[in-house]
């Protein structure tokens, strides 16, 4: 706990002490914290914790930018304009608000609650059987969420056991420590039953699984994170405490290209896109696949991220033929996974309707920016749009797996992002009011790099990037240049022509 500060000051104080404002992710933790803070005060007070929103019209999100579920608001909360930060009430004289959450002005001076995971000891080590990847086994037990955050803080991520070879090597090295149970980087937090690796790759696309008999079973309906046991993988409550294994890849990213000749639909030919794995990565130890990134409807019941149409697999990648109607509209991800290193690299491609109402003014469907940058997204109307400017709406597909939308603005052909953070990374849609379902919208993907411009080496970002030309981007993890279609080489200076595909 800390003395009275504004929300931002409290957040800074927590960070300076190696932690963050507390995330109250369960009713049990809420009850514990309420009982913990209540004896400390002779009068009622409300404690800042790690929940806020950036504007009155937006949803509250946790400080780690994840969505809240089962909030514990006091009656009538969250309420009025300007109350965009949350606090936990300790007031034994008022049962209606004691132990409940209140929305307050972020500038109010209040006491606050920090959390700091126990810092595991251990050291990065190479293990036999896996090349160019180092691993770290924690010595202390903690929740899946704390484990995930800690791995990120030290420049890695929870280990991804994507292949039989990697799973066997990691299990042989760490599976005999203690009870053999440890967290690794697999969960279905984004959608029940749809498991994803720590880098966002769908489990079903990488092929290998090692579930215990009968698993995953989602016992009692709330097991969303995956641990390793001696008999295999088991889904479990994310707040349970176990050791965990981090990984840090030293392998360069795979060179994946996502290409289409029909970004704005097609009046004659079938819309299609290609996923191409460029040399020298297009070998038999790499698997290339595709998935839909967003659902094109506000209705999420029964949705699927399966890609419609027909896939044609060819050496070095695949061609995806899409339906000739509006069901082809969307953002698609081309991904490749190395079965040797377990690393995955992805690139997106966007398909709009040929009858669209809006399109990006500069024709660019994806934009990459850096933390702190300012950017203005701009669209123009087509001849198919007949309504006035006051009918224009902007929304973000803020939860890509669920396809849910949250309002961002209206009545203009531009939307400005100021001093960008990772929270601004999203897919921005422009459409006519109350006409999302007709799929005539524009989509612009905004990517916010993990490091400031010209820097790499997550999380410290303390190394300088080499120059990347012709639109190439410095990879924040490896420092290598990620080249755009048509270019290759260390600095993206060498032109190339694909010999594998035609569109």
Automatic annotation (TrEMBL):
<dbReference type="InterPro" id="IPR016186">
    <property type="entry name" value="C-type_lectin-like/link_sf"/>
</dbReference>
<feature type="domain" description="C-type lectin">
    <location>
        <begin position="1"/>
        <end position="115"/>
    </location>
</feature>
<dbReference type="InterPro" id="IPR000742">
    <property type="entry name" value="EGF"/>
</dbReference>
<feature type="domain" description="EGF-like">
    <location>
        <begin position="457"/>
        <end position="493"/>
    </location>
</feature>
<dbReference type="InterPro" id="IPR016187">
    <property type="entry name" value="CTDL_fold"/>
</dbReference>
<protein>
    <submittedName>
        <fullName>Uncharacterized protein</fullName>
    </submittedName>
</protein>
<dbReference type="InterPro" id="IPR050801">
    <property type="entry name" value="Ca-Dep_Lectins_ImmuneDev"/>
</dbReference>
<feature type="domain" description="C-type lectin">
    <location>
        <begin position="130"/>
        <end position="247"/>
    </location>
</feature>
<dbReference type="InterPro" id="IPR001304">
    <property type="entry name" value="C-type_lectin-like"/>
</dbReference>
<feature type="disulfide bond">
    <location>
        <begin position="483"/>
        <end position="492"/>
    </location>
</feature>
<dbReference type="Pfam" id="PF00059">
    <property type="entry name" value="Lectin_C"/>
</dbReference>
<keyword id="KW-0245">EGF-like domain</keyword>
<keyword id="KW-1015">Disulfide bond</keyword>
């Amino acid at each position: 706990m800390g003395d009275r500060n504004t929300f931002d000051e409290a957040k800074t104080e927590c960070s300076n002490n190696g932690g963050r404002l507390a995330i109250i992710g369960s009713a049990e933790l809420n009850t514990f914290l309420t009982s913990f803070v209540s004896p400390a005060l002779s009068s009622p007070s409300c404690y800042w914790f790690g929940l806020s929103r950036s504007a009155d019209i937006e949803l509250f999100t946790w400080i780690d930018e994840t969505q809240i579920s089962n909030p514990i608001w006091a009656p009538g909360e969250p309420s009025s304009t300007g109350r965009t930060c949350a606090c936990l009430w300790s007031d034994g004289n008022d049962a209606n608000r004691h132990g409940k959450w209140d929305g307050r002005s972020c500038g109010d001076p209040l006491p606050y609650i920090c959390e700091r995971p126990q810092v595991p000891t251990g050291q990065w080590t190479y293990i036999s059987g896996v090349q160019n990847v180092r691993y770290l086994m924690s010595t202390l037990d903690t929740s899946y969420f704390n484990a995930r955050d800690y791995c990120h803080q030290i420049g890695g991520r929870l280990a991804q056991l994507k292949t039989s070879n990697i799973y066997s090597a990691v299990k042989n090295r760490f599976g005999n420590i203690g009870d053999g149970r440890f967290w690794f980087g697999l969960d279905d937090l984004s959608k029940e039953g749809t498991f994803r690796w720590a880098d966002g790759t769908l489990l079903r696309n990488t092929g290998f699984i090692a579930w215990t008999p009968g698993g995953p079973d989602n016992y009692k309906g709330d097991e969303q994170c995956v641990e390793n046991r001696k008999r295999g993988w088991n889904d479990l409550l994310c707040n349970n405490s176990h050791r965990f294994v981090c990984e840090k890849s030293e392998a360069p990213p795979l060179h994946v290209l996502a290409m289409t000749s029909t970004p704005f639909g097609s009046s004659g030919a079938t819309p299609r896109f290609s996923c191409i794995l460029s040399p020298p990565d297009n070998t038999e130890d790499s698997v290339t696949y595709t998935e839909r990134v967003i659902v094109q409807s506000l209705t999420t019941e029964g949705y699927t991220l399966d890609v419609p149409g027909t896939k044609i697999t060819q050496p070095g990648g695949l061609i995806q033929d899409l339906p000739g109607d509006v069901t082809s509209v969307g953002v698609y991800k081309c991904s490749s996974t190395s079965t040797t290193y377990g690393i995955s690299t992805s690139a997106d491609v966007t398909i709009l309707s040929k009858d669209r109402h809006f399109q990006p003014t500069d024709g660019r469907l994806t934009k990459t920016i850096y933390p702190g940058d300012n950017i203005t997204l701009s669209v123009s109307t087509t001849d198919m749009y007949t309504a006035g400017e006051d009918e224009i709406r902007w929304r973000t597909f803020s939860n890509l797996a669920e396809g849910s939308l949250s309002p961002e603005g209206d009545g203009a052909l531009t939307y400005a992002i100021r001093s960008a953070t990772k929270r601004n990374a999203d897919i921005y849609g422009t459409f006519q009011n109350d006409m999302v379902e007709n799929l005539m919208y524009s989509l612009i993907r905004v990517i916010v790099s993990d490091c400031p411009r010209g820097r790499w080496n997550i999380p410290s970002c303390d190394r300088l990037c080499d120059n990347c030309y012709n639109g190439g981007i410095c990879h924040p993890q490896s420092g290598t240049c990620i080249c755009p279609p048509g270019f290759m080489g260390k600095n993206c200076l060498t032109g190339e022509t694909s010999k594998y595909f035609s569109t």
